[in-house]
Amino acid sequence: MVATAALSLGFAPSAPRDLDVGVPPGSPLTWGRSFPGVSPPREPLFPLSDRPNTRGGRSISAPVRSRLEVKSADSFTLVRILTWDLGAHLGWLGATPREPLSGRDSLRPPTAAFGEPLYWVSLAPLLRLLLHPAQVSRTGTIAHLVEIGDASLGAIDDAESESALRRACAEVRERVAPRDARGAGWVGATPRERMLGRFVREELLRVEPYDPSAAFGARILLFADEVFPILRAWALDPSSCDLQRNAVAALARYRTRDALDVLVQTAAQTDDPVVLLRCLAAIGGTEVRIETGALVERLKRTNDAVETVALLGALGATQDPDSLDAILPVARSAFTSKNTDKLQEALIAIARLAPYAGSDERRKDVERFLATTERALRQAPRAFQPPGPKPSTQPDRPDEGDALGRGLWQLATIAWTRLAPSDAERAAPLLDVFGVASRAAATASRAPFLTHVAPFAQPLYLETLGMVGGDRAVRILRDVARDTAHPSLSAHALRWLPLAQRTELALEQLAVGGDSGMRVVALETLLELAHKDAGALCRAALEECALDPRGAADDAAARFYYRSALKYLSRTKRLTPADCVPLLALVRAADGAFGTLPLELEDEVARFVTAAGAGENSAVLRRIADELLDFVIRNRMNVTIDAENRASARKYLLGQVDSAAAHRRDPGYLTAVRRAVLAYLLGYDVAPADSNRAQFAPPVSLEEEILLSLGRTRAPQAVELILQVLENKQNVHDAYACLALGMAGHASSASALAPFLLDADPFTRFAAYEALRHLVDVDRALDGRAAIDWMYAPAAERYALAEEVWQWLVQRER
Amino acid sequence: MAGPARALILGAIALASGLSLGTGAPQDSGERPIHTRIDLPSIAACGGCHLEEHEEWSRSLHGRAWTNANVQTATNRFQKKSCRPCHSPLPVLESGLDVPPRFRDENHEDGVHCLSCHGLPDGVAAARTIEDAPCKPRFEPRLLRADFCFPCHEPTHGAFGEYVRSDAFELGLRCADCHMQTRASGRGHSHGPNGGLNPAFVARGLAWSAERESDALAVTLRNRTGHRFPGEIPSRSLLIEVRFGDDAPETTVLRKPHKGEQREDNRLEPDEERTVRFPIPLARREAPVAVRILFRPLPLMPASECFVLGEQEFAARPR
Q1: Which candidate from B246, B309, B318 shows the least CB-CB separation from A439?
Q2: How far is A341 from chain B (nearest CA, A)?
Q3: Which residue of A370, A514, A769, B60 has the fewest CB atoms within a 10 Å radius of its CB?
Q4: A12 contacts B209? CB cut-off 8 A
Q5: In this predicted complex, what is the ipTM?
Q6: Are A416 and A374 in contact (CB under 8 A)?
Q7: What's the pTM value of the predicted model, to 2 decimals?
Q8: pLDDT, tens digit, for every residue of A388-402?
């Protein structure tokens, strides 16, 4: 995936964008939702009969609402840094970060540094604020960065050098600085509970929740039901700042009523800004009716601008009309004092709640406020200016003087329309794309690409068009949905099209092929609608996936597309082992299946270069070169190196280290040689990507999902296939294969799991034990002795018990 | 092993291989100094002292002249033998600048090896003589001439013939003046990547503007390079994408035809300024208009990944 960019063309008469940056559409309070993220499976991996955390037999991991979400599968959609030579414009980029604040707990990663994905996603909102203060709320931007947490400090450290951003950065810094280093314990009653506690703690802390290139919580969310009590306990316990912050981030992925209750409770009582912002962002994204009393109280109590806008954002999504009574006074005060940040969020909240306004009196109150606001904003948009100092840096196309006022007017008009969407008079400005395209709309039918709608109002505008309905609204929605240049807007538009047109367009986008991101949206749309051809479309996607030997390794959106298809077929019980057979090639051969092999190879290459540098004789070097080539050929790591050209490959390898001895005291040279040798053996350069290009992609667990789906079929053939995977000692998905074997439910295969109780990877041991529990009830069979801490118990204890389990399985089979 | 015995054996080996011990430049076990050995990979032959150049070169199309997927496909993995000499050449200064280079049938992976350009029969060619450097580079005037690039870039790619018709040629500018500019640090000249895979570099090669006329959109392009634009190979193309209102975009492609392809070579001539007019459909006279100039360096690259050299939108025009 390559980020599209506008480039510097100083000689062009009409200068294109040179310095510019975009962000996802909508309020900054919603940006976090467009980050890629792992959610719990819709159904638990194993039957829940022995689980305490069920309500009426239903898994707590069943989401409260199923709806299409617009996620970013690539860096461009997420940060849209449009300037290749950003460093030439902003000299402070890449300044050395200060002491990492988030590395206090040894498990936590260091603060993201220049060039890392988290750095860019933290920097992009600040750049947007710097360059387009009229198109983004300053307070909302701060709230978004606080939501990201102390991982944003790398970018904050740098951006503080820009005078116009200094105060905003200081406000973020003050809020995200960790407050308390005391650790929170998890006192489990049994070894298993203690094991889970430690497992969850490690998984919560080792990855940043908002890192778009990592899969935060992927492994614990597989056991969503079981780990829920642990997450709940930590979410409500303020004694460990890091754990509480990340526990709420993990709970936000659940989207269940239980998780929502915990988030609301935590939001009501926490005094940590990061925890609060993460809770509120999650509540705002759930869009279900909740009891808002505690949040409303907090809104009334607070004087903090960031907290206020975040509470407005969350309350707007609650569908609770009572919260309007608390929002309206804030909105009036913001309007009177021309506090544009608060007014923006208040208008968005009012717009979202308008359809639920309820009683006549409240409704009239809202109407009066909107009428006054709309008139004032329409008549004097320039009176509403963004807060904060004037930036010293400007893009080539700076905001117009009335841009913010016009955007706020659009929000007021949208809210006004949502009070009575069927009122043609109210809807007219929306259908006219706010007047700018009135003449064009009559003839050419639309204004292009929503350029006349303020970015923060765009999703709401599209949603309101969906409520308005009618030919003109549908035409605008359809045009935006077809616009491949803006995938996230296009997804929003598709979501609000009437059913028939939505289906038609989604089918059209799938038929055309093209951009993977658009195909994901189209497919998910059809699956959400349970379209009659959904199964066939998913099968077609799997066939396409099977033809790609690397499983679209470089295209996260394509992998997501395949995985969606797979999950749908699996969920609806239409998947057969035969469907999975061609896909298993991915498990064996995709990049992911090389797992740690490139790292192992890297170690061996280092040994080779070191030996050459030490002046080892040619026989030794030849032997190591042969070992390297054996390794690559045996594991099929590079199609261009095989047994046939092995001799010339060895000659080339030996040539690469020919000067190593002469330069043995030059570490820079030896590093370059290692890189060159590794690049030759792997067939691709392992040099870090050019950080200025800000490219990154989320990991998509396609191979893992293939195995789990196979297990879910519970077919005898599936057992055979999973056993084949487990027999491959190079396989890096052992843990998932073990789980799949347990899910398949054939007790006769249990003995294949025993060796994995001794695996070097704790998670694989845990997975093998879990599978044995469900396949043959190993705990009961051994009178509870098998229920030890398979992840962290001393090796001697694990080995002894693994032996006992093995003996029992052998006897049992006899 | 005891010291004297070890020294004795080393001495015997040195005598047998004809090497002298203890001289300045790193020596290998063969007969020639290492910096003249094109049979060794570039990292070994030259990288030891010229790491920065090696790093630049390894990212350039010279460094990947043999291995890049585009050329591997276009030549059917070099089954097309006529392509081999330029994609894995022996030193051009040895074979001469008026003939194609000879094929280096070893170290293919290194593509255009450091010594393909810098190699001399008896040493190393450079822009200046440095007596006390290990490789003892010698000033070689041919290295600084524009026709230094002729052996590979003219016979099939036709770049040199274009260059001699250009203003750049008139002004005395050479290929390297654009493609090997002085580094930002001021130390030496960049060895890459300065070609079709570098979006910033490509963007410098084209000036453009767009104007909405009463009945057409006029897009004016000016080739700022000393060769046709896009240069050399048919896999590179320049796209002008115009959209009237909500119509599907209209795209004009400028590229060199493939061999045997029935297509006009519509690329921009060196220094050419060309205005391409896109008539605005009657029903779209008042509609907004958008234009994007894209460069597609590889034929299968999706439009979304092409380099955007520029874009402009014209708002709807009221009646």
Answers
A1: B318
A2: 29
A3: A514
A4: yes
A5: 0.71
A6: yes
A7: 0.65
A8: 777 777 776 788 889
